[in-house]
Amino acid sequence: MLELIAQLSLNTLALAAAYALVALGFVLVINAVGAVNFAHGDLVVAGGFVAVLFGLQFDLPGIALVPLILLVTAALGIGLSLIAYFPLRRGPPVGIYVSTIAVGVMLQNALLNVFGPAPRRGPPLIDSPPLHLGGIALSTQALATIVAAGALVFGLHLLLERTQIGRQLRATAQDPLMAQSVGIDTRLTIALSFALATALAGAAGLLLAPLHFVTPHDGAALILKAYVATVIGGWGRLQGALMGALIVAAFEIVGATILSQPVAEALLYLVLLGTLWLKPEGLFGEASGRRA
Amino acid sequence: MTCLRPLSILFLVLLPSFAVAETRLPVLVPITGFLALEGASQRNGALLALKHANAGVTAEVLDTGATPEGAVTAFERAMSGGRPPAVVAPILGTQMLALLPLAEREKVPLITISGTAKITELDNKFVFRFFPGDEVVKLAQARYTVEKLGRKKPALLYQTTAYGQSGRQHLAEQFARLGAPLVFEEALAPTVKDVLPALIKAQAAGADVLILHLHAPSTALAISQARAQGIALPIVAGSAMHQPATADLLSPRDLSGVCAETAASPISGGSAEMAKFTQDYRKEFSSEPDAFAVAQYDGTTMLLAALKAGAKDAVQLRDYLARNPHQGLAMRYRSDGKGNMAHDAVIVCFDGKSRVPAIVERYAGTQ
């Protein structure tokens, strides 16, 4: 029983850690531009494929590829902002929704053409067999995922809370006009928000690719998870994204273990509906209707 | 008038070959979506058969995606260009079920490799399946587990799709009949990426073997996650596991103790003809062939043999397929009266040192 609880806890935390990166990136763009980036799931997938490519090219463990993945996917984010946001920023938000959907579809088809339809496995974060502690088998991949995601979340926290760039990002998110009036280059901070968001998405792709594999069509399911996590946690709240990711992962692992996968999935959506009925602002506040 | 007679005779002589030269064969397969891997194998098998035969039949490849609507749209599009002699129909069972009434309406034979048992149980005279159905391969999977591995407590993970439901029913029946009823079973949607909860429950139920009846990505996920978790139970998987592309997702260490049912395993060798097929396939598509590719190759070859034998329309072609045997690369095919053409299965196992499985057991059918 102890073994079961330990395994479930570890795997839930590992999955939550990867989902947290997805959800944090999702929320960063919502805060920066007040619109949903529907290409976000496809950017996670792109990160997974970049990891596959670098893994083949450099023959390095996944953990060593994190800086490279962050750089490449951050560049993708800047590209996304230039194509799908800036040309449409003065129009209604629906234009941005549609443009990000379009970019997502293009990205998906590009990946399909380059890599083909077969699933690919990303390089393992560290290549070692499970650790055995007192009869409990602990997946080293799961442990490495928690450590890597934890370091990235902590790094994001430091960037946002302790640096001038972070303050400018938060100021732009809270009130872009006021930020502009005090001399902040909001175009730069918005582009930087996109870069940060997609870098986190790319890192999530790297973490998920060794155990979950990656196919060009995975993006839709991932953005749905990010959406659910954000609505439950609180629309536009970073802490909410973390809590939401943990809840989604708990349903997927603990719920599916106690009940079954289809029942656990149904219950998760019941919780989502319950949140919308009873606490629409989510667990950590902010009205969901304001920016959705 | 007399000078016209030789011309008319010449015209009549040339007519059949002209007709063959113009023959179009729609290849409706899922090239995108969760069954894209199998769909690509199916397409490649059909294309290679047409290339080898060089009989003037040209393929028209249409992507069916992963939905019944996608298959119906592709079928309607194929019919809009004039009625073809037959259609290579998708491997996905739900798509086949949607296409069956359309094939009957248009009187066009469907040449498929779908494993879903139901498609040949609906008394449709226009469906021909060149991959052994669940009643054949699931029996082989259950018999090998119980009779050869000596395992009596199987835990089954199956897909929520029509393919999964069909296999689940046959496996449950066969294991019960063999005195080894399932100790645990759970359905997984193709979108599920975390198989661990089901694996943990299977272990907790006291299973001594894992039986998988999943599509390729889910099969690889289940094995990978079981091994990462230190679950060392033997695994007897469905035909998806014999695919080289599935094995590529796993390390040889992960594959230790893994077996799978299938109709054939081209990369495992067997005959000179199979070796040539494998070599040509690699050259043509830069990938490894699997049983689905061989089965579709054999099905398309039989179709071409029917055209060569003089079948002039879809009904004659259907009658040829229904009445004649055909020696293919994987096995000898013959209809059982319901459109089931393939009746043999093999079990392949990995040795933990490479990703190429060896054929360890053959189960011959009764047709």
In short:
The complex is a heterodimer of chains A (292) and B (367). Chain A is mostly helical and 292 residues long. Chain A has one domain.
What would you note in describing this structure?
- The complex is a heterodimer of chains A (292) and B (367).
- Chain A is mainly alpha-helical.
- Chain A has one domain (2-217).
- Chain A is 75% helix and 2% strand.
- Chain A contains twelve helices and two strands.
- Chain A has helices at 2-33, 40-58, 66-85, 93-115, 140-162, 164-174, 176-181, 186-212, 219-233, 238-258, 261-278, 288-291, and strands spanning 131-133, 136-138.
- Chain A has a two-stranded antiparallel ribbon with strand order 1-2.
- In chain A, strand 1 and strand 2 (136-138) form a beta hairpin.
- Chain A is globular.
- Chain B has 367 residues and is of the alpha/beta class.
- Chain B has two domains: 4-131 and 271-335, 3-Layer(aba) Sandwich (Rossmann fold); 134-262 and 346-363, Rossmann fold, CATH 3.40.50.2300.
- In chain B, the strands form four sheets. In chain B, strands 7-6-8-9-10-13-14 form a seven-stranded mixed beta sheet, sandwiched between helices.
- The longest helix of chain B is centred in the first third of the chain and has 18 residues, at 4-21.
- Classes of the chains: A mainly alpha (292), B alpha/beta (367).
- Chain A binds chain B through residues 4, 7-8, 11, 15, 112, 116-121, 129-130, 132, 137, 139, 141-142, 208, 211-213, 215, 217, 221, 252-254, 256-257, 260-262, 264-265, and chain B through 31-34, 36-37, 39-40, 160, 186-189, 191-194, 196-198, 200-201, 204, 216-217, 220-221, 224-225, 228-230, 245, 248-250.
How does the SSE layout of this entry go?
The complex is a heterodimer of chains A (292) and B (367).
Chain A: H1 2-33, H2 40-58, H3 66-85, H4 93-115, E1 131-133, E2 136-138, H5 140-162, H6 164-174, H7 176-181, H8 186-212, H9 219-233, H10 238-258, H11 261-278, H12 288-291
Chain B: H1 4-21, E1 24-29, H2 36-53, E2 58-63, H3 68-80, E3 87-88, H4 93-106, E4 110-112, E5 127-129, H5 134-148, E6 154-159, H6 162-177, E7 184-188, H7 196-204, E8 209-213, H8 216-228, E9 235-237, H9 244-247, H10 252-255, E10 258-262, H11 272-285, H12 291-308, H13 314-323, E11 326-327, E12 332-333, E13 345-349, E14 358-363
Parallel strand pairs in B: 1-2, 3-4, 4-5, 6-7, 6-8, 8-9, 9-10
Antiparallel strand pairs in B: 10-13, 11-12, 13-14
Helix pairs in contact in B: 2-12, 3-4, 5-6
